[in-house]
Specification:
191 residues; mainly alpha; 9 helices; 0% strand
């Protein structure tokens, strides 16, 4: 893919994400995305077969970015704290993606539910790897299953990040991360 094509797709992703985050995917038109991106409507159809294909590609693109960040946390000294920090950083940088993910993932049956379920599984599998390492080291509370802990941490971070961005934007990422880590570590010591 050429640098120009990559740049154009990024402009389309940014425009679509902004509009979809504000109003939901179903209520945004191709004309509005093109206008927001500052391109002709045909540019969207040149790069994507339809608005739905653009939204689906946008979902994959966002999850690839998040997965890359979470994988980079795996080698850290405190990989759980690094994972929490990376996820919060992603949601802070892309709050509209979080809104899109929440609104479309829980819509039943949603147009992108199948795609989102697979993408969610990709992210949760990275979190699951971290939870498995904690479990193997005896650092999860007795009776807590790795799968439950993984889904819980992912969901908790997504909701906390949205709450932070919407209702507590004055808080720093470090403050939010430290609060989450106190909660997580508090569960461990409550054993």
């Amino acid at each position: 893919m050429s640098a120009r094509t990559t740049a154009t797709k990024q402009k389309l992703f940014d425009a679509a994400l902004k509009l979809v985050g504000e109003r939901g995917a179903a209520s945004v038109t191709v004309d509005e995305i093109a206008a927001e991106a500052g391109v002709a409507k045909g540019t969207i159809y040149y790069n994507f077969a339809s608005k739905d294909a653009l939204v689906e590609a946008l979902l994959h693109h966002g999850v690839e970015i998040l997965a890359g960040r979470l994988r980079s946390a795996e080698g850290s000294e405190d990989s759980l704290e690094a994972l929490v920090d990376e996820m919060l950083g992603f949601w802070a940088e892309y709050p509209a993606f979080g809104q899109l993910l929440v609104s479309e993932l829980w819509r039943t049956p949603g147009q992108w539910h199948g795609t989102l379920s697979l993408l969610r599984d990709d992210i949760v599998s990275i979190v699951r790897g971290q939870m498995k390492r904690l479990s193997d080291a005896g650092r999860l509370p007795d009776g807590v299953e790795v799968g439950t802990a993984s889904a819980a941490l992912f969901g908790t971070l997504l909701v906390i990040a949205l709450d932070w961005q919407v209702f507590q934007p004055e808080r720093s990422r470090a403050e939010v991360r430290d609060s989450v880590m106190l909660l997580v570590r508090g569960m461990r010591s409550a054993r």
